[in-house]
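In this section we walk through a basic example: taking a raw amino acid sequence and producing a predicted 3D structure, encoded as discrete structure tokens. The instruction is simple. Fold the sequence below.
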Amino acid sequence: MQRYITPYSFSIDDLSLNVVIYEHINDDFKLIDINKNALRDEGLEKESIIGHYITEIFPNIKEFGLFDALFEVYQSGEKKYFSFGYYNNHFISSWREIEIIKLNDDFIMVMYKNISARKSMEHKLTSLGIIVDNSFNEIYIINAKNYTITYCNKQAQQNIQYSYEEILNLHPWQIATQVRQEDFKKRLKINKKFIIFETQHQRKDGSYYDVEIRIQKIKIDKEAQYIAIVLDTSHKKAMEEQLSLSKEIIENVSEAIVVTTIDARIIDINPAYTRITGFKKEQMVGKNPSVLKSGRHSKEFYKEMWESLHTKGSWSGEIWDRKKTGEIFPKMLYINTIYDRYKQPKYYVGIFQDITHIKENEETLRRLAFYDPLTGLANRTNFESRLEHAINLNIRNNTSGALLLLDLDNFKMINDSLGHLVGDELLVQVAKRLEQIARKSDSLCRIGGDEFTIILSGPIELERIHLIAKRILKNVKEPYHIMGQEIFITTSMGITLFPDEGTHKLDVIKNADLAMYQAKNDKKDSYKFFKYEMNDRTLNFLRVESDLRKALNNDEILLHYQPKIDPYRKKVVSVEALVRWNHPKKGLVYPDEFLSIAESSGLINPMGEIILHKAMSEIKQLNEELKSQITVAINLSTKQFTDRNLKKYIFGLIKSLPFDVNLLELEITESLIMDNVEHAIELMHQFVKKGISISIDDFGTGYSSLNYLKKFPIKYLKIDRSFVKDITNDEDDKAIVSAVISMAKNLGIEVIAEGVETKEHEAFLMQHECNLCQGYYYSKPVDLKRLKAFILEYNQ
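The resulting token sequence is shown next.
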């Protein structure tokens, strides 16, 4: 008989929920009734559980919290809703949602339903939510009716810099601001499974970044929605732009580029390759670059190239190749190996430029270095080399040769009275007459001004020398017809034999020089053979040397300074220190009277130290007084440059004064460098590393190759005054000066022109972009006091 009373008028079997009736007995709950739904869901028979206590049916019930809930309702009489999970006999997690109701007396009714499926779905949704929230892409849910954003993940918040709440107040077109509202809606209404388009998202700070948007229509709780997945493509775009820029650069650079496989098959070339060689891409792809071979290089040359590529991964150098037209041309080639990710060679990339113009400049400089531009004869540098060779050859063959040194008589008077054009043409015609006399085996040279030399190679008899000398005197003094003028000139000649009277070139030159001066002094239009009694100059040498030693101890050495002008800014930017000797009896003595003696006597080094100290001290004082940054250029002699103590002395002086190293410039001559190229390069690099500038003085008298010039760390080239004086009316000088400036500019070297004496000189040099000018047009060399006054006035 049923003892409990339910709130319902019908049987618990008629309820759709699972129902169980418990009776509270001895602090436990006995199951006294259960409906059909509960039996079916649990898979039980009624007889098997009726009368059993809940702690028997569920041994671990107290762990679920259900037992405490039943007891709470029993005591309070109030309903309780409760859900719990447990593991059944098959160890499968099971969830129940229950309602507990107190009935009459000690009876409790438990109504419940199985919610395991729902809990499983919730778990899956939670997991999916974690994945979505941690996606690297932006994810948005958009309402299909009003186009509001109803959800966004963390990446969306991070990228556009809005909070979750702020984003839910936005529409998609307020983020993708470059897409109008109408266009956005139109895209969404396109009847496709999903749509993809590229645009830009705008961040909260107003900045933009590139994105790709993928939108798909879905249903959530039977309501139409759009899910938008947004990829940040800004890095991809930047890479594409970089690739596009690289391609644009390769397509437009002036250097040719060729890419080959590791077995030297061309796979690509750029337009510059076609422009330089004449070969089009379709003609070269698949070919070996050797089809351009000129035939000028040996097998050993190419063997060394490949060895360098295999061992170092690169090679560079000058190489001659052949264009499509058959023309052979020089190029500077750089080859580098491209490796794959496994460090294995995969491609070769060759970059080259046509250096024909550089070679032409080099040839111009070679002519400039070894040949007189006016007459075309060998110049002094070339002469000294040839003389040294002739002396050594005659020593080996036990024969005698002769040196003839000619100096035109009264040439200066003709040059000054009739003008430089007439004077130059006279020199040219004298040179031509001498060429008719000299044999092919002889060397005819113009060593400067109106001085010529002829090296008569041995063996040669004394009688033959007399005949040649007389013929020279006769031919030179025959009349010249230049620019409507009939001109007469004679020459004085000194002759010395070698190696009989000298085995060193300087001794031989000195002997010929002494003999020539004897001829001039005795009777012009004559020749003299060297005699050892010609020692007047030797005595003079000894007197000057003695006085010079006293001068170094008595502070008789002083400096004058000649300004270097920036003609574009009209400013003095630098000065050249020029030595003078304040002789107690002779007064001011110029360097041409004592420098060579100082060099020969070994006094040049102590004198050089005095000059360095005075120049740096005085210019430091000048800069402090004027609050300026004037640079001082100091000339170094050959012996100074080769002195081991030079570097130590200069660096010590800079530190002790102290002196701003950036305001110090050292001037050296071309011939000085070429005496020992490797030493010169090493020493110059050490000076430049400290901040000292290097300039090459009297440029145009000693370089054999541009290759050397490119190796020297020089800042300035000084064009010799002999090339500047006639640039306004001499085409050769114009060509030489413009070529030197152009060449220097290409190498990143500044140019200083010496001997600027007229406004026309300055105009020509400025027209050709010469950097600095120096000469009497601005100022002669002056002492420190007058230099200061000049700078103050000129720089105003």
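Looking at the output, two observations stand out. Residues 374-534 form a domain with the Alpha-Beta Plaits fold (CATH 3.30.70.270). Residues 750 and 775 are 17 Å apart (CA to CA). In the next section we compare this with other chains.
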